[in-house]
Amino acid sequence: MNTIKDYIGEHKERFLDELKELLKIPSISADPAYKSDMLKTAEAVKERLMEAGCDLAEVCSTPGQPVVYGEKIINKDLPTVLVYGHYDVQPPDPLDLWDSPPFEPVIKETKIHPEGAIFARGACDDKGQMYMHVKALEYMTKNDELPCNVKFMIEGEEEVGSEHLDWFIKEYKDRLANDVILISDTGMIAKDVPSITTGLRGLSYVEVEVTGANRDLHSGLYGGAVANPLNVLSKMIGSLTDENNHITIPGFYDKVEQLSNEEREKMAEAPFSLDEYREKLDIDAVYGEEGYSTLERGSIRPTLDVNGMWGGYIGEGAKTVLPSKAYAKISMRLVPDQDWKEITELFKNHFESIAPKGVRVKVKPHHGGFPYVTPIDTTGYQAASKAYEATFGKTPIPQRSGGSIPIVSLFEKELESKIILMGFGLDTDAIHSPNENFGVWNYFKGIETIPWFYKYFTKLSE
Amino acid sequence: MNTIKDYIGEHKERFLDELKELLKIPSISADPAYKSDMLKTAEAVKERLMEAGCDLAEVCSTPGQPVVYGEKIINKDLPTVLVYGHYDVQPPDPLDLWDSPPFEPVIKETKIHPEGAIFARGACDDKGQMYMHVKALEYMTKNDELPCNVKFMIEGEEEVGSEHLDWFIKEYKDRLANDVILISDTGMIAKDVPSITTGLRGLSYVEVEVTGANRDLHSGLYGGAVANPLNVLSKMIGSLTDENNHITIPGFYDKVEQLSNEEREKMAEAPFSLDEYREKLDIDAVYGEEGYSTLERGSIRPTLDVNGMWGGYIGEGAKTVLPSKAYAKISMRLVPDQDWKEITELFKNHFESIAPKGVRVKVKPHHGGFPYVTPIDTTGYQAASKAYEATFGKTPIPQRSGGSIPIVSLFEKELESKIILMGFGLDTDAIHSPNENFGVWNYFKGIETIPWFYKYFTKLSE
After folding, report:
1. Which residues from chain B sit within 8 angstroms of residue A328, using beta carbons?
2. How far is A62 from B462, CA to CA, in rounded Å?
3. Which residues does chain B have within 8 Å of residue A227's beta carbon, measured at their own beta carbons?
4. Are the beta carbons of B212 and A310 separated by less than 8 Å?
5. H-type helices in B226-361, by residue range?
6. Using alpha carbons only, what angle is made at residue B82 by residues B76 and B86, rounded to the nearest 5 degrees?
């Protein structure tokens, strides 16, 4: 299978152009204003799947955003790989921090990517990584190298909690039958340090609203005598962590898996430079839970982060207003064996209980997902490991990520197969941030590595 | 002087229409986009002053917004009243909470104002109250009832801290010479409980910025390991008050005037119903500093209020971002003998000192002003008291307000005269809030009362 490299070399420009076309459509699932762009993106993915060699591809309606399903069945007795990805993207704001418009993809050279990187919202997360699989399929079908069956399930609600994928999986259960689920929606340690993600954190995302008086008040006339929702909300949020940055919600840590010292020591062997980390982020110090390293804080420990907060006057200049309402979006990343529904309930009860008299508090659960950990002794993991060896010349490092793909634990439960997370993104890709980008090198390396996975997975499954 | 009532009766509609015209111009001093509307408003005020009988009126340039100066000198040996007011208004946001557009004045009947109230930004604060003085002058000049000299100083930066009025007062010191300064920019207790404001709180207004990493981060990948500016800012703000709602900034209370028990008992005699207060604001409980009543918390005690706060994703739906920056606008209301410049410095030092490692904090002072208290045994106060008696049939109650007119203490210092605060607004006028309004009854009552002040002030000054 040396020809995959040649094939990429021949079709380089087209592979980039096709991805750029996809990136131009603002498929922002969080904002209802982009509903027709969502459908347009789904249709485009469907067409690309057919062109890449699928026998069948459909834009399937759901109670939410449509899911693109595609398949190429070569022999029912051979194994089946189910590729999962998503065509929706995060909102691009704050827009003024982008160096180029988020939906006008451009390729620019960077320090990390001297070969160039594609800058656009969704470049890495997940249009770029999803499209690697489409192009890998194209190579395999055009060169008679597809060794097994393949199915695609590309959804449009990953960035908003995959609310209706549950419904889709149950409805399409038979058609989705597979032997392994392959996902590229994570990262790797470095360009020369390949890694396979073996764990993901769970998520509970809530929105809170604190109401004081029934209208905005003059802060001179009422200040000091009436609860100020912004002061109160700050105090409430401030109290959710103690002086050691432990989360204070009663019961929050009850089910947190405690890693053995041996496991923690093994984790500490992963290549990591605190100095480089600080330097890249331009911070004088890291910040987190006492008693845990930066790598541990970002993977095996749960968190509580305010993702957005607002209230009162936020324009230019000064306005002496005592606002009627204050809001925050808060997410908690969860680890095995925390149950996101239980944590959401714990948060809600605690938050309501700490509200002082004089304000009313509403907690609105947004979405969530279970944490996920996968063993490394499976056929799927072994096949992935060998694929990386073939293209990177190195054995990949198993790594637990701090991110979440809330739906992953559901896949395992409903579809009864293991999930393999082959991510080709880098830390510096700025996913969910302004100037998201994906290295051209990484994009091609993904396309190159994926067919090897199919080959080894089929072989090891014999 | 019974004819003032008749005069108002005859010119009612015109008095309302003229005020409405003024209210249509969006003179928002906080927003540079309204610069030409500011000038337009100043020009309109100048013309109205001339029409009302001034000998001279000018739009005077300053390093900031222009000040309108006007005068009618009838005899140099007679006393001179200097009227101060402002033609700028607060920003109208949040716009969606207005029942009618803020710059399209309409008269609507309300429970408190069965005679109707004018709804518009600035209706009470301060275009409506300032214009009462213009119409009172018109009555006096047209009916040969002006007993003394009058000067007007109507500025355009009151809502943003009167930054350049200092310059204006020093520059125009001679022309501004007067025997008493008359201001209608406060309220009274109720329509049947007239009151004169004898104290104003000072103000220190600052903006704070907390920066974590150099860019927005993915809260899954970095959450728990890097300082989140919103979590940190919440915690910092939360720590600025203790469990008794005392402000924790070292030195903050050092110069606070402690009222005697006698003075506090006298204050407690003012008519006030906690039930009505709660009901009007739709709150289950008041909230404030332990050991002080609601009236005290809102007048003789200093405060710390967040007037606006923002950071991260504040759009629809969910975005799992760990923001790079978080902001808050914070104002402190001050009481005698706190020095706003000293308090601003104390705040800055304290706020910077409590910032944890991993974030950078900037404190930007906005503006401020000194608190003000005036005695009630002056000629000006006595004249005002008699004027209210003439039109309300009741002796007004001296009252300390929680609001601030930062420039007032400067007037006393530079112009060496006493300030009389005859306010005709009500608590429910929603100044600085959506649906600001000013009772038609209050507007006319102000126009009716003012000429009596001139009469008694001239008489008592003999």
Report:
1. 230
2. 87
3. 283, 286-287
4. no
5. 229-238, 261-268, 274-281, 294-297, 340-353
6. 150
Amino acid identity of residue A228, one-letter, is: N
With vertex at residue A142, the alpha carbon angle to CA A139 and CA A145, rounded to the nearest 5 degrees, is 70
B316/A30 Cβ within 8 A: yes
Q: What is the C-alpha R_g of chain B?
A: 23
A276 in contact with chain B, both atoms CB, cutoff 8 A: no
Window 144-163 of A: residues touching B by CB (8 A cutoff) are 159-161
Q: Establish whether domains A3-200+371-461 and A204-256+302-369 are of one fold.
A: no
- Indicate yes or no: CB of B225 within 8 angstroms of CB of A402: yes
B383 Cβ neighbours under 8 A, 6+ residues apart = B180, B420, B453, B456, B457, B459, B460
Cβ contact B311–A309 (<8 Å): yes
Give the residue among B168, B164, B8, B375 at the shortest CA–CA distance from B152. Answer: B168
Alpha carbons within 13 angstroms on the beta-carbon side of residue A322 total 29
Burial classification of residue A278, based on how many CB atoms lie within 10 Å of its CB (0-12 exposed, 13-18 middle, 19 or more buried): middle
CATH 3.40.50.2000 fits B3-200+371-461, yes or no: no
What CATH number labels B202-256+302-368?
Answer: 3.30.70.360
Using the Cβ of A434 and the Cβ atoms of chain B, whether some distance falls under 8 Å is answered with: yes
Asked whether the beta carbons of B421 and B355 are under 8 A apart, the reply is no
For the stretch A228-257, pLDDT in tens is 999 999 999 999 999 999 999 999 999 999
Determine phi and psi for B198, rounding to 5 degrees: -110, -5
User: Was domain A204-256+302-369 assigned CATH 3.30.70.360?
Assistant: yes
Which residues on B lie below 8 Å from A231 (Cβ)?
237-238, 241, 304-306
Q: Do B317 and A31 touch (CB under 8 A)?
A: yes
Q: What's the pLDDT tens digit per position in A273-318?
A: 999 999 999 999 999 999 999 999 999 999 999 999 999 999 888 8
ipTM over 0.90: no
Ordered by start, the domain boundaries in chain B are 3-200+371-461, 202-256+302-368
What separation in angstroms does the CA of B5 have from each of B113, B207, B450, B452? 19, 48, 12, 12
Contact indicator for B146, B454 with CB cutoff of 8 Å? yes
CA distance A184 to A239: 37
Question: What value does the mean pLDDT of chain B take?
Answer: 95
Give B258's DSSP letter: P
Q: Residue A220 and residue B403: Cα distance in Å, rounded?
A: 4
